[in-house]
Design a protein that fits this description.
The chain is an all-alpha fold and about 400 residues long. Helix content is about 45%, strand content about 0%. The chain binds heme C (4 copies).
């Protein structure tokens, strides 16, 4: 049985790799800006849940992006990322990440800081991971228990020679364990891997993860350096923005820290996000009669400069109340109800991710936050790319929204 699967997968792999379109790494670089928030500017995931892509096979990357797009591989974060990509985009992105050095260091030090709404690893207090046992299983398999050796498909030390089989070397062990569990329970589908992982015990999964933690295999050493507060670097002209911000003062205050709960604070918000909102108000993609009037006469240049000005202002403290219900939903989501953890996009501290277009939500007025979640839920606000917010908001009850808004404002 195992030999049949083996040759089948190997054969298909060769074929598919021979047919793959060669991408343009240079073009891929430009398209990868949104990916960096999670997969790192150097292709090394910024947290354990974000797989490293540097040095991964281009063919494998393309295959996964297609799978996320057509829904055969599901992930609340990646599905919306892959949805707008064309075949050319995918080929270019694959070529770009494949060209990167896989031995880079993660930009993040707080690897555990971004939990998502996936079922937590089953609490298994008795399991002590054994890297040596993992190595043995990886190289030899266990015929008696019907477990195929991994080395045949994934290569010595996890460097696979088959272009459509992923490299496992230099991958986060946590990510490897999660994938094995998903193949095992069928939530990630692949004929070969579903078969291989079927007989893996929780101990085996932990051992295999530990094997990839072994520095001899996983050469990457995370830097211990602290990140430090990054200065706000803007592209627009702050002075020009300030000069034309007079019309905004009545509602958003001179420094963007609005004093009225229904008007959002825009101080310290990401430049990219502010500029996008202004453009969306102008095009009508985000419908608001008040703001539409405000932006009607603004040029693209004006919007960029206003965004730069407000982005460089410091936000004042929010008045929300930290609460357990909000905190739980915000940091962990609710897998049973299909609610992705907000941390995944808006960050553990609520500061968002500028490059990916995820706004800061910390310190914002409670009333405004509530109003936006309600608008996303009813689709009165529909300017979120790939329905990222609408798909989540539709699952939120009024009491969730209340608790979340209070919590976000308190961050
Ligand atoms: C908001 C965070 C986030 C962003 C932004 C993001 N990804 Fe991902 N990506 C993930 C997560 C989480 C996974 C792992 C999914 C899983 O557990 O199955 C993943 C998995 C992948 C994989 C599969 C890797 C593997 O080893 O199987 C590829 C390829 C990928 N992402 C490419 C991209 C590209 C290209 C972009 C930019 C267009 C991008 N991602 C943007 C979070 C993100
Ligand atoms: C018959 C070939 C084959 C064997 C044997 C095999 N794998 Fe795989 N593995 C694959 C293929 C093909 C994929 C990619 C699946 C896809 O396209 O979604 C994969 C994917 C994976 C992934 C996900 C990687 C990622 O970046 O998302 C992990 C982890 C993994 N295998 C671990 C193992 C381990 C551990 C073993 C041994 C117990 C093993 N595999 C045995 C073919 C194999
Ligand atoms: C008369 C009051 C008023 C004035 C004046 C005004 N705004 Fe607004 N602004 C609002 C309201 C109300 C909203 C929230 C709309 C909604 O609920 O979607 C908003 C939303 C915004 C947002 C979106 C914030 C977010 O977090 O998504 C930005 C950016 C913004 N305004 C910038 C400006 C700028 C720049 C000016 C000056 C050119 C301006 N506004 C003038 C009332 C005003
Ligand atoms: C997959 C990424 C993603 C996840 C997960 C996510 N958001 Fe968002 N959120 C976004 C994006 C993107 C926007 C901005 C859309 C736009 O371009 O206008 C946004 C906007 C918002 C806004 C409006 C901010 C403003 O200033 O107008 C609020 C409030 C919000 N999100 C709350 C949440 C909460 C609460 C959760 C968890 C229950 C959550 N988000 C989960 C991506 C995400």
């Amino acid at each position: 049985m195992k030999n049949v699967i083996f040759s089948l997968v190997l054969g298909v792999g060769m074929l598919a790799s021979a047919n793959a379109t060669a991408g343009d790494a240079q073009a891929g670089k430009a398209k990868a800006a949104t990916c960096a928030a999670c997969h790192g500017a150097n292709g090394i995931g910024t947290a354990d849940m974000y797989p490293n892509l540097a040095g991964q096979h281009a063919d494998y990357i393309v295959k996964q992006l297609k799978a996320f797009k057509d829904g055969s591989r599901k992930d609340p974060l990646m599905s919306p990322m892959a949805a707008p990509l064309s075949e050319t985009d995918m080929a270019d992105l694959g070529a770009y990440f494949a060209s990167m050095d896989s031995s880079g260091a993660s930009a993040s030090t707080d690897s555990g800081s971004a939990p998502v709404a996936v079922a937590a690893a089953p609490a298994a207090p008795k399991i002590v991971p054994d890297a040596a046992a993992g190595k043995h299983l990886y190289e030899q398999g266990d015929t008696a228990r019907g477990i195929t050796a991994c080395i045949g498909c994934h290569g010595k030390d996890g460097d696979s020679l088959v272009l459509i089989n992923p490299n496992l070397s230099n991958q986060h062990p946590e990510y490897i364990e999660k994938q094995l569990n998903h193949f095992k329970d069928g939530s990630r589908e692949n004929a070969a891997m579903n078969q291989v992982s079927m007989n893996l015990s929780a101990q085996d999964v932990a051992d295999l993860g530990a094997y990839f933690k072994d520095p001899a295999v996983k050469a990457v050493a995370k830097t211990g350096a602290a990140k430090g507060a990054a200065p706000v670097i803007v592209a627009g002209d702050v002075e020009k923005g300030k000069a034309i911000s007079g019309t905004c003062v009545a509602c958003h205050a001179a420094d963007g820290n609005s004093l009225i709960a229904m008007y959002p604070k825009i101080a310290g918000q990401h430049e990219e996000y502010i500029a996008k909102q202004l453009a969306d108000f102008k095009s009508g993609e985000r419908a608001d009669p008040v703001m539409a009037g405000m932006v009607a006469a603004l040029s693209d240049e004006d919007m960029k400069n206003l965004a730069a000005y407000f982005a460089t202002q410091k936000v004042t403290e929010g008045s929300g109340t930290a609460n357990d219900i909000g905190k739980k939903l915000y940091t962990g989501g609710d897998a049973a109800r299909g609610i992705t953890a907000c941390t995944a996009c808006h960050g553990i501290d609520g500061t968002g991710m500028a490059k990916a277009g995820f706004p800061g939500v910390a310190n914002q007025h409670v009333d405004y936050l509530k109003a936006q979640l309600v608008k996303f839920r009813s689709e009165d606000r529909a300017n979120d790319r790939s329905k990222m917010m609408r798909n989540i908001a539709v699952r939120l009850k009024d009491e969730d929204i209340e608790a979340l808004a209070q919590y976000m404002s308190s961050l």
